[in-house]
Fold this protein.
Amino acid sequence: MENNNDMFEFLGEDIYSSTERTSDHFEDIVSDSKMKGKHYSKRKRGNKFTNWWRGLQKWQRITAVSCTSVVLVLAIAVGVFRIVFNYNYNDITKKPEDLGFESVINDKIVNVALFGIDTRDPKSFKGLSDSIMIMSLNTETKKVKIMSVMRDTLVPITYNGKTTYGKINSAYSKGGPELAIKTLNTIFGLDISEYATVNFYGMADIIDAVGGIEVELAKGELDAMVHEYGYVANLGLNGNVEEICKYKGLDPSKYYIKEAGVQHLNGVQAVAYA
């Protein structure tokens, strides 16, 4: 596939995804699936990551979870809260070939897929993965690199023995995390076998856990809009607040956003904005 680098929003300085680039550009995410001589072995990456996290200094931990955008909150919060504290974190037990790779590329690099699902149902983890990230953990240098895959990226998806082209976020809805991971590995030459998934319900709690975020809101995002059937409904930001509060059993009046401009948003408000 050409121009793979156009499919990413890079959040680090030296993560490259294009197979046309030389290996000098690769520091943490190793994407040469043709490497030979290393055989797959099932390793307890969760324990390796936990040891890596505990080895960080306090200021490094604070830096790792300090972020000012919804995207960074998703990536860091899912990585820290879902992996370190073993909360809804999964290591797929299928064979490597079932996940789109033949062998582990580098034992010192752990690549983890992070998915944000568009469902509001607190008990569901099914749906389109509208947020897709790959977190690369270097257990030797203790560096973390994160990149975001554009959800509308058109890719070949093999499902039930048939390959069709579709948006990459649809892989999760068709075949769950296994198909989503297999698609990532196949397209970008990775060896992902571990992932964390969060839905809108859990996302609000994660954002609250890191102290909320600051976002600049436009006035139009707060205003009521006219519904396509002709009646007026609050489909703006506070309309989303009401929807989320409904699922969480909260009083929406305590979460309404009343002014535009730079605002410090809590979990419910931030998810409504997203």
